[in-house]
Amino acid sequence: MFEQTFKAIDDVLWKEAGCTTELDYTEQTSWMLFLKYLDDLEEWA
User: Fold this and answer.
1) Overall average pLDDT of the 10-29 stretch
2) Rounded to whole angstroms, how far apart are CA atoms 37 and 29?
3) How confident is the model at residue 10 (pLDDT cuts 50, 70, 90)?
4) Cβ count within 10 A of residue 10
5) Mind giving me the DSSP string for the chain?
């Protein structure tokens, strides 16, 4: 499950022009996972 999620995020981020360094990549991945968590939490409530 996590592998598929990270693979999907990887595919999107590597195509984006704003992700040029590993730090950008890590920041964006963390942000996407946080937003997904909030979305799932909202659906549950």
Assistant:
1) 76
2) 12
3) confident
4) 13
5) -HHHHHHHHHHHHHHSTT--SHHHHHHHHHHHHHHHHHHHHHHH-
